[in-house]
Design a protein that fits this description.
The chain is mainly beta. Helix content is 12%, strand content 51%. Strands 1, 2, 3, 4, 5, 6, 7, 8, 9 and 10 form a ten-stranded mixed sheet that branches. The longest helix has 11 residues, at 2-12. The structure holds copper (II) ion.
Length: 150
């Protein structure tokens, strides 16, 4: 297995040291709320930092979407608004959640229809240059959270 991993890493042009460095950020509860038609989809995930230094999420990209942006939803005067976010810090030995009503990844320009039940690979980018590929489960527009996910 280890030999296969080395070969695969070589084929993909990924250094093993790099792969080890990303291990301190762990992603869980990753899901996408799919909206009808060409509406952008929100992506949510819980990020855990097991390292001794804070790490900031600075962006993401996915082969399934033309663009992925980091956003924050806020409530103001009864209206929900979204603003761009440059970086979202995950504290050392802490967690940061992207969740409905707060931080999220806004996925735009789907390359093909994404349906509930689909798995979509999104690669998260961090301020120290690390990247972390995460598989997100697509859920219907009515989904409020990731209940029922292992
Ligand atoms: Cu948004």
């Amino acid at each position: 297995m280890k030999r296969a991993a080395v070969l695969l890493a070589g084929l993909l042009g990924i250094g093993l040291a790099h792969a080890g460095a990303t291990a301190r950020i762990d992603a869980s509860h990753a899901w996408i709320r799919v909206l009808p038609g060409t509406l952008p989809a929100g992506a949510y995930v819980v990020l855990r930092n097991d390292g001794d230094q804070p790490v900031a999420l600075t962006g993401a990209d996915s082969p399934a979407y033309g663009m992925a942006m980091l956003h924050r939803s806020t409530q103001a005067g009864g209206n929900s608004r979204m603003a761009m976010v440059d970086a979202l810090t995950i504290p050392a030995h802490g967690t940061q959640a992207l969740a409905p009503g707060g931080y999220h990844l806004m996925l735009m320009d789907a390359k093909h229809p994404v349906r509930p039940g689909d798995t979509v690979r999104i690669t998260l980018r961090f301020d120290d240059g690390d990247t972390l590929p995460v598989d997100f489960i697509a859920r219907p527009a009515s989904a409020l959270g990731d209940q029922g996910q292992p």
